[in-house]
Design goal:
Blueprint (H helix, E strand, L loop, with lengths): L1 H16 L2 H9 L2 H14 L6 H23 L3 H8 L2 H33 L5 H18 L2 H11 L5 H4 L8 H9 L7 H14 L2 H17 L8 H35 L8 H12 L1 H34 L13 H16 L7 H27 L2 H4 L6 H28 L1
Helix pairs in contact: 2-12, 2-13, 2-15, 3-11, 3-13, 4-12, 4-13, 4-17, 4-19, 5-15, 6-7, 6-14, 6-15, 6-16, 6-17, 7-16, 11-17, 11-19, 12-15, 14-15, 15-16, 17-19
């Protein structure tokens, strides 16, 4: 009995410790990300499984830096940019971030609506998209921060369905292990495009802004001055590591599912998340299809508040407006207005002729161009003793951050090349 109580207490403490890092990691696997991973699995089988091992440490290193910047400076990443760098850099980031995030929101809303229609065919996808938009807007505006944080954290449990789906289908363990630990590279435009898409989806600039700002939000929510020390930094790192590990596993299992079921079933082209869900139905059964579809809606409910929240933090901190999810609407009207505008603009993409897939392509390009610049700035801030004091980067963080910078820079040039060569 004592052992079970101790275990329960340990799990309870661990769950309480988890917060922004877990939500950030879960939001990284949004419906648009699921579409990218599904296409990777459908087109190339298990050939891209190894990318989850590469992406995890790079994601974790950058997100840890962002979390530390928020804790130490009591400002979001935008505030750190505003206080320490020329204004043109900040405005360029804003110029690129706004359309990229709005298009990402639009693609996610469209994906959720389409999957809602698959589950309930009598109701048009458009109605589901509108319903989800109104639901999200209402929850974000009317729920206090700690309720939003708790809701998002519990919604992460929905993503466990992706750990179940692959085991509903017969797997070749030896083949999976080989694909996981031995990288496969094909030097053609399509395969490189998939790799760039995976990188752009996993190491997304909006997550940098969200992580730093939400750590400040967490401090404010505790309603007392927080003295940053190594213990707190270690707890934050554990939270981020768990969140990024969670994200990496979801990515891995989606590629595994589509790489075994769809690829082997002769389905090699997946353009949307609803296509991935529908393709699973005849090949892997109703349960796999249902779980996959429910997971898509769950991830959208996690990701869209993070996307819209990160955009609002960027804009309000840029112009010095009142901000924060811990504030009521009348206390931060501009902050919530930006969130509402981003959701409405995202929803409107369904009606102006921009398809979700085109939106994803444009988003990936904008993310690919801004990520290397932002990673370089994050590395510079994290190593600046005048800003970070004793909490500058370790050599390990710098090595991983440098690798992320190099890989994302190559990805950015590859994106440009792919677009020019195909245009």
């Amino acid at each position: 009995m004592n052992k079970s109580v101790k275990l329960k207490n340990k799990l309870s403490r661990f769950w309480k410790l988890l917060g922004p890092g877990l939500v950030t990691g879960a939001s990284d696997d949004d419906p648009s990300g699921i579409a990218t991973y599904s296409q990777a699995g459908a087109a190339y089988g298990l050939s891209t499984l190894w990318t989850s091992l590469i992406a995890f440490p790079l994601m974790a290193a950058i997100q840890q830096m962002c979390a530390r910047i928020g804790l130490v400076t009591s400002h979001g990443l935008t505030g750190a940019l505003k206080n320490n760098y020329p204004r043109p850099i900040l405005y360029v980031m804003l110029l690129f971030s706004f359309p990229a995030i709005v298009m990402n929101i639009g693609a996610d809303i469209a994906g959720m609506g389409a999957v809602g229609n698959l589950l309930f065919p009598a109701i048009d996808a458009t109605y589901f998209s509108v319903l989800f938009t109104i639901l999200l807007l209402g929850l974000i505006i009317y729920l206090p921060y700690h309720k939003i944080a708790s809701t998002l954290k519990y919604l992460c449990i929905v993503m466990l369905v992706y750990f179940i789906v692959p085991f509903l289908y017969k797997q070749d363990v030896a083949q999976i292990l080989k694909a996981t630990f031995i990288p496969t590279l094909k030097f053609d435009k399509e395969f490189m495009g998939i790799l760039v898409g995976i990188l752009g989806t996993t190491i997304s600039p909006y997550l940098f802004f969200w992580q730093a700002s939400v750590e400040v939000e967490e401090m404010n929510n505790k309603k007392k001055h927080l003295i940053v020390n190594k213990k707190i930094i270690n707890e934050i790192n554990e939270d981020v590591d768990f969140g990024m590990t969670f994200s990496g596993f979801v990515m891995y299992f989606i590629i595994l599912t589509t790489g075994t079921v769809l690829f082997k079933g002769g389905i090699h082209q997946i353009d949307t998340v609803e296509q991935a869900a529908m393709a699973l139905k005849p090949l892997a059964g109703n349960l796999a299809y249902l779980l996959f579809a429910i997971g898509i809606i769950g991830t959208g409910l996690i990701a869209i508040p993070v996307l819209s929240g990160s955009l609002s933090y960027i804009i309000t901190e840029t112009f010095g407006w009142e901000q924060g999810l811990n504030k009521k609407f009348h206390e931060a009207k501009a902050f919530y207005s930006v969130i509402g505008l981003s959701l409405i603009l995202g929803l409107s993409l369904n009606y102006v002729g921009i398809s979700p897939i085109k939106a994803l392509i444009y988003t990936a390009i904008l993310y690919g161009l801004t990520a290397p610049v932002l990673i370089a700035i994050i590395l510079h801030i994290s190593n600046n003793k005048k800003i970070m004091g004793q909490f500058t980067n370790s050599w390990k963080s710098n090595v991983l951050g440098g690798m992320a910078l190099l890989i994302m820079s190559v990805a950015a040039f590859t994106l440009i090349y792919l677009q020019l060569s195909s245009g």
